[in-house]
Amino acid sequence: MTPPWALIWDMDGTLVDTARLHFEAWRATCLELQYDFTEADFVATFGRRNPEILDHLFGRRFSEDQVQSIGDRKEAAYREAAAKGGVFLLPGVWDLLQAGRVHAARQAVASSAPKANVELIMELTQTRDFFNETVAMEDTQRGKPDPQVFLIAAERLGVEPGRCVVFEDAVAGVQAAKAAGMACVAVHFVGHHPPERLRAAGADWVVPTLAEIHVDEFRRRVGFAIDAM
Ligand SMILES: [Mg+2]
């Protein structure tokens, strides 16, 4: 019997496109702090954990408690906007989740976002049943490009890192996946990270959307045998 294998999903920009909602939530939160949060700030901090984003924007100006409460305010603003505006799966995601299930992959979400966001997105997109595990901001001490989030996911799934395939849309996420010793498929549909930078970060396969993924090519690219496929 082949050992188990896994698909590990980044959330924002990979499962769903929530960039606009995050941008607006950061803008509103920073405005209260008399800081004009720009598109450039957004690009520079995309996909990172809130404490690291606040460090980047404000240096070490805030105490740990303040960082927590500012982050909470931003996330509350984001969840309100998500619940109101609706969130939809990106192209190809639903089919790939189904294919993973058919081919007996264990599946996890591994996100820099707070747990409440991950829960909300799974609920809004009706994807909860696909995932055996979720790993969120609260479960990690170090954000991507550190491999911690993916290594925790693999451990919880009971799958060797070398038999995990990560789906990512960010350079830091690709770096984290490769540092974890995993295969990585990068998608550039939402367009925050150009394909050449994803490739340079070590992605095994870069695709415009996850609708491009076909089983034969997938098997060839990820570099390990998946008997069930
Ligand atoms: Mg992402």
Describe this structure as you would to a colleague.
This protein is an alpha/beta fold and 229 residues long. The protein folds into two domains: 6-18 and 88-222, Rossmann fold, CATH 3.40.50; 19-85, DNA polymerase, domain 1 (Orthogonal Bundle). It contains ten helices and six strands, in the order βαααααβαβαβαβαβα. A six-stranded parallel beta sheet has the order 3-2-1-4-5-6, sandwiched between helices. α1 (19-32) crosses α4. Magnesium ion (MG) is lined by residues 10, 12-14, 47, 169-170, 173.
Structure summary:
By secondary structure, this protein is α/β, with parallel strands linked by helices. 46% of the residues lie in helices and 11% in strands.
Radius of gyration over all CA atoms, rounded: 17 Å
Total strand segments? 6
Do you know the CATH topology of the largest domain? Answer: Rossmann fold
**Judging by the overall fold, what is the CATH architecture of the largest domain?**
3-Layer(aba) Sandwich
CATH superfamily of the largest domain: HAD superfamily/HAD-like
Termini separation: 14 Å
Strand content: 5-15%
SS element count, helices:
10
Mean pLDDT: 92
CATH class of the largest domain: Alpha Beta
Uncertain segments are none
Bound molecules: magnesium ion
SS-based class: alpha/beta
Read across the widest sheet, the strand sequence of neighbours is 3-2-1-4-5-6
**In total, how many domains does the architecture comprise?**
2
What is the general shape?
Answer: globular
H/E element sequence: EHHHHHEHEHEHEHEH
Query: How is the main sheet built?
Result: 6 strands, parallel
Percent helix, as a range, is 40-55%
